[in-house]
């Protein structure tokens, strides 16, 4: 099952990058907020069909969860808005590397402090080094993107 989850996560990463590229291009024409709205409306319809045929949870449990957990909905909307705005300006790879760095930073904090009932994993030098390498990767990718866009402009 572990290999299958890694494969699903890998495919999720592929779809995230493809969605970022398509939404970034679409957002230039239709607008960032409009593209985000269309994405969520379409996603809602798609998920409603999936729930209809394959759902086995309790949709009304939404009313029973602690209210702070509903913030995940707004965080998802903000994430998509930021992605759609960033891709046309800095490119897909720079956007995704920046997303990963953001995920690492908040993940390190969540693990270190045990927020949201997570496993406590203390911050150590290996995590600092991993984060540093990601920031270095972002620097080189972003500089490469700028150089390419300057060459295209001339």
TrEMBL record:
InterPro entries: YdcZ. It comes from the Bacteria. Keywords: Membrane, Transmembrane, Transmembrane helix. The chain crosses the membrane at residues 36-56, 68-87, 93-116, 128-145. GO terms for cellular component: plasma membrane. This is DMT family transporter.
